[in-house]
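#struct-pred
JK: can someone run the complex with S-adenosylmethionine? inputs below
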Amino acid sequence: MNPDTIYCGDSVKILGKWEPGSVHLVFADPPFNIGYVYDRYADDVPDAEYVAWSRAWMEACCRVLRPDGSFYIAIGDEFAADIRVLGRALGLHLRNWIIWHYAFGQNARTKFARSHTHIFYFTKDAKRFTFNDHLLRFPSARHTEYQDLRADRKGRLPDDVWDEFPRVCGTFRERAGFHGCQMPEALLMRIVMASSNPGDIVLDPFVGSGTTAVAAARLGRRYVGIDVSSEYCRHVRARLASLPEHREPQAAGDAWPPLHMDMLLQLYRETKVSLSNLLPNKVAMQVVAASLSQRAGRAYSAGDVARMLESVASTPLLPKLPNDRPFVARNHETNEGKRYARRIQRVRRRRTSHRGGEDPALLLPAV
Ligand SMILES: C[S@@+](CC[C@H](N)C(=O)[O-])C[C@H]1O[C@@H](n2cnc3c(N)ncnc32)[C@H](O)[C@@H]1O
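RT: done, structure tokens with the ligand placed:
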């Protein structure tokens, strides 16, 4: 196995040829067997076949994992229980059953909309593993709400429900555009920071759009990715070649290394507090600065952080948090408001005519 390589082919076959115990961290996000359309994989096989295949690739990953290695698996509701049972059968230790709760889940009409994915965090050994808690801390409600001076200045660890990573939607700058299941880079950064050290080898046996490899490379780890699709592999190599670290500075915020800027913006998202409430809160700002300094490996003061956040405050770089702007009611009497209301009515009429008749409850008052 050559580090910093994207391999094209079947991961079970490729992993079978590698040295045992050569990888520090595995992150696997296999097809979920839900009929999703991929370039070179039919995601709709009989359940028993899918479970047998899951066992085969999990076994292959366990073989190449070091005795002190960590193994994360993302999976949907349909086979989460099977993966947990397979993990036990393979002698893995479950450290967390993480729920990634995301915004922008697909809408549903006949049941509750699904808005989560399971992420199993296993280790090979119950006691020996890497867990860099100092790189994961962020200000808790004790800092942000109560400004409690007794709260730990280093911040607190995330819970096992992760809701600070929105899905990568089609309109996001981060979207690579060639793969429908692209995971957020910030989520993979959390996993890579937690369970590996610089120079370690991070394997993704279903590399897809390349997110794990990108996170590993940006954090100074060595990546190895595998995918059956040569098309995806080609795109992933191009994505790796165009990492922000390789580009010229272009936008507001570029005064900092792009990685540190991304870390700060993610930390801001983790605080869940609007900028206008965060900036004057000295207790929380100190935690943000301390946590950023740990993650970036460079000392940043609360003042540095405040100046940088202020400089991007009115740009699209600053993540939008729920309810972080004061509510401004739309005035339906103004021209702009009237145009908006007419457009909504047109869209709703089109939808109801598809269903064979107007639904009066959907119509706005006449404008
Ligand atoms: C859910 S996607 C992974 C998405 C990825 N986590 C990301 O962030 O882009 C699953 C990937 O597994 C690949 N795949 C399916 N069967 C495979 C196999 N036997 N060996 C290697 N890759 C496979 C598919 O081509 C697909 O790109």
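RT: quick notes.
Residues 345 and 364 are 7 Å apart (CA to CA).
The beta strands are 5-8, 23-28, 65-75, 93-101, 116-123, 161-162, 201-204, 222-227.
JK: thanks, will look after standup
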